[in-house]
TrEMBL record:
Family: Belongs to the ATP-dependent AMP-binding enzyme family.
Record domain AMP-dependent synthetase/ligase: where: 41-190
Ligase found in the keyword field: yes
Protein source organism: Coprobacter tertius
Keyword Ligase annotated: yes
Organism lineage: Bacteria, Pseudomonadati, Bacteroidota, Bacteroidia, Bacteroidales
Protein's name according to its UniProt entry: AMP-binding protein
Keywords on record: Ligase
InterPro entries to which the protein is assigned, alphabetical: AMP-bd_C_sf (IPR045851), AMP-binding_CS (IPR020845), AMP-dep_synth/lig_dom (IPR000873), ANL_N_sf (IPR042099)
Length: 340
């Protein structure tokens, strides 16, 4: 199967390497071998990352859902600024191969638009790349010119969401995982508090924990039980609340760390997370963990005051701790652990 890279049709790994890079060439070679699968890795967010086999037919089916939703054809230009070592980068290449779209390749970086000559119709980025692109006038203008942008890999903060609403680009947060072969739902960031909407014929249920069950008739595995607690609007839409593994039960009140982290995102400039810590009276108490050196007392008081203004009483952290450097998964996601 051929692929168009930077305007040039490539029919071999050597041609891909010459036009783009060795990483692109390796995946192209793997995709075009005789095996029915390619190898991928889970993120490691909730345990050790593991190698899994991604069925090529599933990847094609997933790519078709995205191509159909965004109208991606052989006349479309797409941006690849993510590594094909990960599922997001692999799927951009598959979408290009089955549609005939022109895939513009730039080296993965925090500001992938800085060296871009031609503005793409479609792009996929992580929140950090989007934020960095917004920070400079030149890259902000390029970002505004993109037709459609999907954002995944980490939550989109309320501040970033608000910033994107000032631009004409259509932006969507993605929901999916390696096991579902990229995203199976999208959230339109042009409106406040919109739910995730299923793609294709995907439908949703919840189990007795309140966790999402995904029905995926387009994949070889047609049902996935997740650890994501959601508020289900109907069989096709949901609001994400947080990971079941992270939920804190404090004095009988169920707290979702991810929801609280979103609310205080404008208060803290460093990396941070909240989690439960054993407590004799409450069972678990909510604590805020901030990366880096301990703040001066006056800054801590100011932060506590800001959080009191934003959070309802039972959502307010009972303690603030500092860790010099957070642990991360192989893909850069923060591991919620207070042990350095």
């Amino acid at each position: 199967m051929e692929i168009r890279l930077n305007g040039i049709v490539c029919r071999s790994a050597d041609e891909c390497a010459e036009v783009a890079n060795e990483e692109i060439a390796r995946f192209y070679c793997e995709w075009n071998n005789t095996l029915p699968y390619v190898l991928g890795r889970t993120s490691g967010s909730t345990g050790n990352p593991k190698e899994i086999k991604l069925i090529k037919a599933d990847m094609e089916a997933s790519a078709r859902l995205t191509n159909e939703f965004f109208g991606i054809t052989d006349e479309t230009t797409m941006l690849l600024c993510l590594s094909p070592s990960y599922i997001a980068g692999k799927m951009m290449m598959v979408r290009a191969m089955i549609s005939g779209a022109d895939l513009q390749v730039v080296s993965p970086s925090s500001s992938p638009l800085s060296s871009l000559k031609r503005i793409p119709d479609f792009a996929a980025m992580v929140p950090m790349q989007v934020q960095c692109s917004l920070n400079e006038s030149e890259t902000r203008e390029k970002l505004a010119g993109i037709g459609s942008l999907i954002i995944g890999g980490a939550p989109v903060t309320p501040a970033l969401e608000t910033s994107l609403q000032t631009l004409p680009v259509k932006c969507y947060a993605t929901y999916g995982m390696t096991e579902t072969v990229s995203h199976i739902a999208l959230r339109d960031l042009g409106f406040t508090d919109t739910p995730y909407q299923a793609l294709g014929e995907v439908t949703f249920e919840i189990d007795d924990r309140g966790c999402l069950i995904i029905n995926t008739p387009h994949l070889s595995c047609s049902r996935f039980v997740t650890n994501d607690e959601v508020r289900l609007k109907d069989a096709r839409r949901f609001h994400w609340l947080g990971r079941h593994d992270n939920v804190v039960n404090s004095g009988g009140v169920k707290l979702f760390p991810e929801e609280i982290e979103q609310k205080i995102s404008e208060c803290i400039k460093r990396r941070y997370f909240v989690m439960g810590k054993p407590d004799l009276r409450l069972g678990e108490k909510l604590v805020l963990i901030i990366e880096g050196e301990e703040m001066p007392p006056d800054e801590i008081l100011r932060l506590q005051s800001d959080m009191e203004r934003i959070l309802i009483p039972y959502q307010r952290p009972k303690e603030i701790l500092f860790i010099s450097r957070f642990k991360e998964t192989y893909s850069g996601k923060v591991i919620r652990d207070i042990q350095e």
